[in-house]
Design goal:
heterodimer, A: about 120 residues, mainly beta, 7-stranded mixed β-sheet, 4-stranded antiparallel β-sheet, 11 strands, globular, B: about 110 residues, 6-stranded mixed β-sheet
Chain lengths: ~120, ~110
């Protein structure tokens, strides 16, 4: 299967700081990537669709200014949690597919803890 | 988005038993996948199955898109099968929506 890599795997930061999470597609060009969020013992919630070279599309209820997404190249999308607060602590996971209608592959996820 | 419902929410099995996990979805879909989430959070792809039946070892899956459901079968369960199983469905290319998951505990 396709390889999707995320970095960092886990991060701890102080309240008020910003944190950037990277998602890389290692073996194919990804024009579209998806960002999900998962709270403990809950399901995955789609946050936004990241489009290479254009603005991200956010799901209803997701704050665009809080979660900045940049998809500057065909292999890299970044999610920046701005002015992080404890309620932003969560597991963030990205995904992409080699084709528009094909199988979706996920990164390892990034666990964010905001103190 | 699509509403995806999974049942049962929790399942306890004795090692060697068989089980069926169900996934219902609210709209017509063109993509459906089953995943196993390991204790570290990694999502492991089990099946990409928009329709039809597939088998991989002790696991098999069936999707009946016209009736809006998919089933995951686990036969001769092992303790390593424990974890959370998710199904995810999409009607807009790869924009997947997840069910709430089934937490499986296989006891030795």
């Amino acid at each position: 299967g396709a390889v999707v890599s995320q970095h960092p795997s886990w991060v701890i930061c102080k309240s008020g700081t910003s944190v950037k999470i990277e998602c890389r597609s290692l073996d194919f060009q990804a024009t579209t990537m998806f960002w999900y969020r998962q709270f403990p013992k809950q399901s995955l919630m789609l946050m936004a669709t990241s489009n290479e070279g254009s603005k991200a599309t956010y799901e209803q209820g997701v704050e665009k200014d809080k979660f900045l997404i940049n998809h500057a190249s065909l292999t890299l999308s970044t999610l920046t949690v701005t002015s992080a607060h404890p309620e932003d602590s969560s597991f963030y996971i990205c995904s992409t597919s080699p084709s528009l209608t094909g199988e979706l592959f996920f990164g390892e996820g990034s666990r964010l803890t905001v103190l | 988005g699509i509403q995806v419902e999974q049942s049962p929410p929790d399942l306890i099995l004795q090692e060697g038993a068989n089980s069926t996990l169900r996934c219902n979805f609210s709209d017509s879909v063109n993509n459906l996948q089953w995943f196993h989430q390991n204790p570290w959070g990694q999502l492991i792809n089990l099946f990409y199955i928009p329709s039809g039946t597939k088998q991989n070892g002790r696991l098999s899956a069936t999707t009946v898109a016209t009736e809006r459901y998919s089933l995951l079968y686990i036969s001769s369960s092992q303790t390593t099968d424990s974890g959370v199983y998710f199904c995810a469905a999409a009607y807009n290319f790869n924009k997947f929506y997840f069910g709430s998951g089934t937490k499986l505990n296989v006891k030795p």
